[in-house]
Amino acid sequence: MLDQWGLDRIKHVLDGKCQSVVIENHYIDKDYRDTFSSFHSKRFATPSSRCVRLHFFSKAVTEEEIVNAGDAVKKSYLGYSVVRPTKPNCIGRTLLTSQLRLHPEAHIRNCTENIVLLGTEFEVEGFPFISQDSDATVCAESALWMIMRYYSNTYRAYPEILPFQITNLAAHHAGGHRVFPSSGLYSWQLAEALRLQKFSPVIYSRKQFGTPFDHLLYTYIESGIPLLITVPSHVVAAFGHQSNYAAPCPKFNAGFTYTSHFNQSFVINDDNCFPYQMLNKAGKQGRLDSEYPFSKIEEFIVPLPEKVFLTAEQAQTVIETILRDPKTGIQALSPSLTSLSGNGGGLIKKLISPVVGNGNKLLLRLFLTSSRSFKRSIQERGMGHIEVANLYRHLPMPHFIWVCEIANYDEYASEQKILGEVIWDATRNGREPDGWIALHFPEKLVYDAGSAFNNPQSPDSIKTIDLSGQNSYLLYKSNLHTL
Asked: Which residues of the chain are under the pLDDT cut of 70?
């Protein structure tokens, strides 16, 4: 079943890393069986209903060692790939460890699966991959399957969905065209399929957003949300990024400098290629990189959770507004951050970010996360001051929050440390200026006590805590896995 096309793609990822392959014959793969029952079984020349599953190990192993697997054998497990009897693309459901070939500075979103082989359970952590079969599924359905399988593996709220079920999601909006063999899906059809799976999808177009487009794409990836990315006549899944903080940083409009400006690559799964490609800003640089540069990304689709109403660009606008506010902003409450801007007292009017390291050290990082995950990180990070940590532990927050971390570029780049953050209610809309929950600066912590009791924000509800002796502290890392 394994043709040269499939072999080449497996070798791209595993060459030099894999020392043993265990072949599991007559494997009944639930994803292939779904398309077989609904499509392939109706063909005159019917392929087999069974597959082969290949398991990969980084060390030489015997059957006895697998059956009595110790820690060394279990740690050597690299993942699996299903080989199905479909032409021209035979690589089916695949999950390989993300440690195989990614750059050590890459940050990605992973999920975990437990695999039983010869009665022994193995664990693999990575991002799901599948190739199209060119009939029941093409690139759009394959990329959507990767995203949905990540969610069903990670969150109980999302049910597992099989490939042909994804194809059928387009049946109600096929626009007079046949559903299968599939001829692909438009962006709005992909978004509609996500909506039917309990997401609140948003489509972003480069033509619509212009310069901020790549920044917004990065912001959602930084939020730990896998995205569907469209390039000319193709769709891929994106779930990570890689930054270079030694690279020059261009001005972003006339505003703050964000960490997105140092992003050099997005980590993608392209069903026409192999897992964990790097889609680079300047395009293909090595044989394992994607052929597409950033400029070829036309649109991306964000599967936002239902409880997130504030989009990234709206969150950025309201947070920047509050940071410039003459009463509650940086200049009013934080002399140390004002000095970092390189503009002195003209911060509010003139906060224009030149190349970082040329007089401007103020750096912002924007992301969405759950308040549960954010609070879980407090103990490890310390939050710079015991008063901040204690308040955050007890302060009621919505399910999802937008966080804008504030940092000194030098400390952020060398030690991954920050100086404060703005926390904003993600269930607000973009026209509510009082949606902030906390404004944490090195000198002061300002928070809204009224929102904790579902009361409107007022002068009496805004409380301030003076922070003497605050230290810098670790940035938030729970959204993405650092290799």
From this structure: 101-104, 135-136, 170-184, 248-255, 341-360, 483
Please give the DSSP secondary-structure letter assigned to residue 194: H
Residue type, 70: G
- In this predicted structure, what is the pLDDT of residue 170? 64
CA distance 340 to 337: 5
d(CA 262, CA 281): 10
Amino acid at 383: M
Token pair 């409880």: residue: 307
Q: Please give the pLDDT value at position 340.
A: 77
> pLDDT value at position 184?
64
* pLDDT tens by residue, 132-177: 877 667 788 899 999 999 999 999 889 998 888 887 776 666 555 6
In which residue are the tokens 């007292």 written? 345
Residues contacting residue 462 through CB under 8 Å, at least 6 positions apart: 446, 447, 448, 449, 450
**How many Å separate Cα 97 from the centre of its chain?**
16
Please state the pTM of the whole predicted model. Answer: 0.92
DSSP state of 71: H
In whole angstroms, give the CA distance from residue 433 to residue 202: 22
pLDDT at 182: 57
Distance in angstroms (rounded) separating the CA atoms of residues 107 and 365: 15
DSSP secondary structure letter of residue 245: T
Checking DSSP bridges between strand 299-305 and strand 444-448, what pairing results, if any? unpaired
d(CA 160, CA 238): 20
C-alpha–C-alpha distance, residues 241 and 105, integer Å: 9
- Structure confidence at residue 250 (pLDDT): 54
- Biggest CA–CA distance in the chain, Å, is 78
Chain-centre distance for alpha carbon 147: 10
What is residue 435's three-state secondary structure? coil
Paired tokens of 157: 């709220």
**Domains of the chain from N-terminus onward:** 4-305 (3.90.70.10), 312-482 (no CATH)
Residue 244 CB neighbours (<10 A): 13
**How far is residue 302's CA from residue 170's CA, in Å, rounded to a whole number?**
18
402 touches 319 (CB < 8 A): yes
Q: Give the CA distances from residue 32 to residues 131, 163, 304, 408, in Å, rounded to whole numbers and listed in that order.
A: 11, 8, 28, 51
> CA 73 to CA 123: how far, in whole Å?
11
